[in-house]
TrEMBL record:
It holds the Pfam family Aldedh. Belongs to the aldehyde dehydrogenase family. This is Aldehyde dehydrogenase family protein. Keywords: Oxidoreductase. The lineage of its organism: Bacteria, Pseudomonadati, Pseudomonadota, Betaproteobacteria, Burkholderiales.
Length: 474
């Protein structure tokens, strides 16, 4: 049996109702690395029915039982760490070292965090004469992206399970293989049949069916803003809850009292991680005008240190981007930036030298960028940094906020009070001050066209709960 051609429904590995397969392409070779089945409305109906049947029982699972389940999941996930990292590297081009140290490691951290949150989370409280309870919303449809494929699956699935919901998951058809392994992990850990269901397929078919399905009470979607709008429209007729984590064009404001060399290099590395395919990446670097040329030189030097190559090589820092559509979009935007008058001080159009096959992009730094250029407003989703000068704190904030997105922002200053003051002025859901490590307990999500709702931490759990008031004395 080829496990990737099966769906996981009602605790069984089953064939699709209509046999139809698609290749998962290795972006480093442009050749198939596996094949998956592509689901239909009928497969979604079957999965929703299984989730509905499992909900009455699973929704009553005690917190202690959930903690015990997640404590069984964690060592299985750790045991299969290398296998999952290898799959992620093959399916979306992530360098194997980054897959091990970031992509899979983050999933283990999220699992530990869910366990920790459940130990203290209050599902009931008394307020005056009213008992307020937080109850699972019901059957949830989860639609996940290809850039952090298992991380986003784990962020959604584990928090939904912690809330007591049952699940229908559609991973991205571009990077779906790790989700199959995760289904095996949940099965081995003893999750009851029907609580978690996996149907592969594309957005216009399976994603649309999940969004519209009257048997699904909530949809959580991560992906592009364009696709998020379609999900919300499809979900509107059934008035289901929709949470979305969408695109970003995050500003990185560096003040002149920051350590310029350290902060510039940190910003470049943060952007180039995962080949720039991270929705909250610091893609717009804002520099005080009197330091601008010095900053450009530092950024260009750091970019040249990022070698591009075979993602299976542990020494590789940048692999290919995940698919041909993304490759062609990035190349178009880089060429457009040059045509608009931006100065490519590192990288530029075309593949890196010696890499004639695979979806490889030159790590690119653009100087002389004005905020009205397409490369300064469009989410590129690749290893491309734009550098913009500013003349005052107010202008830096104005430039940072002058975007339809609001997922993240970055501020660096030698004066922590100044950094925090500016952080409060930025219209974005996550602000990173002075190059911190990522906090898996911090709620993650956006303002404006970057979406709504939050993932991770206690807020991520709350998204999957309904609030009920039980009013009256005993």
């Amino acid at each position: 049996m080829d496990k990737f051609l099966k769906f996981y429904i009602a605790g069984q590995w089953v064939d699709p109702i209509e046999p139809r397969s698609a290749a998962v392409i290795n972006p480093a070779t442009e050749e198939p690395t596996a094949f998956i089945s592509m689901g239909t409305q009928a497969d979604v109906d079957r999965a929703v029915k299984a989730a509905q049947q499992a909900f009455p029982s699973y929704s009553q699972t005690s917190t202690e039982e959930k903690i015990a389940f997640f404590e069984r999941v964690l060592p299985i996930l750790q045991r299969r760490h290398q296998e999952i990292a290898s799959l992620i590297s093959r399916e979306m081009g992530c360098p194997i070292t980054f897959a091990n140290e970031a992509q899979v490691a983050s999933c283990e951290l999220h699992t530990e965090t869910v366990i920790d949150i459940l130990r203290t989370y209050q599902f009931e409280e008394q307020v005056g004469t009213t008992r307020i309870t937080k109850e699972p919303i019901g059957v949830v449809g989860l639609i996940t992206p290809w850039n952090w494929p298992l991380n986003q699956v784990v962020c959604k699935v584990l928090y939904a399970l912690a809330a007591g919901c049952t699940i229908v998951l559609k991973p991205s058809e571009i990077a779906p293989l790790d989700a199959t392994i995760f289904a095996e992990i949940l099965e081995e850990a003893g999750l009851p049949a029907g609580v978690f269901n996996l149907v592969n397929g594309d957005g216009p078919t399976v994603g649309e069916a999940i969004s519209r399905h009257p048997g699904i009470d909530m949809v959580s979607f991560t992906g592009s803003t364009r696709a998020g709008i379609l999900v919300a429209k499809a979900a509107a007729d059934t008035v289901k809850r929709v949470t979305q984590e969408l695109g970003g064009k995050s500003a990185n404001i560096i003040f002149d009292d920051a350590d310029l060399d350290f902060t510039i290099r940190s910003g470049v590395r943060a952007l180039f991680g995962n080949s720039g395919q991270t929705c909250d990446a610091p893609t717009r670097m804002l520099i005080a005008r009197h330091q601008y040329e010095q900053a450009v030189e530092i950024a260009a030097d750091e970019a040249r240190k990022h070698t591009v190559g075979d993602p299976s090589d542990p020494k590789t820092m940048l692999g290919p981007v995940a698919n041909r559509v993304q490759f062609e979009k990035i190349q178009r935007l880089i060429s457009g930036g040059v045509a608009a008058g931006a100065r490519a001080v590192a990288g530029g159009p075309g593949r890196p030298e010696g890499l004639e096959r695979g979806f490889y992009i030159k790590p690119t730094i653009f100087a002389d960028v004005s905020p009205d250029m397409e490369i300064a407003s469009e989410e590129i989703f690749g290893p491309v940094l734009v550098m913009i000068p500013y003349d005052s704190e107010d202008q830096a904030v104005e430039i940072a906020n002058a975007t339809e997105y609001g997922l993240a922002g970055y501020v660096s200053s030698g004066n922590i009070e100044r950094a925090r003051r500016v952080a409060r002025r930025l219209r974005a859901g996550s602000i990173f001050v002075n190059c911190p490590d990522f906090d898996v307990r911090a709620p993650f999500g956006g303002y404006k066209r970057s979406g709504n709702g939050r993932e991770a931490g206690a807020y991520g759990l709350t998204e999957y709960l309904e609030v009920k008031s039980i009013v009256g004395h005993g």
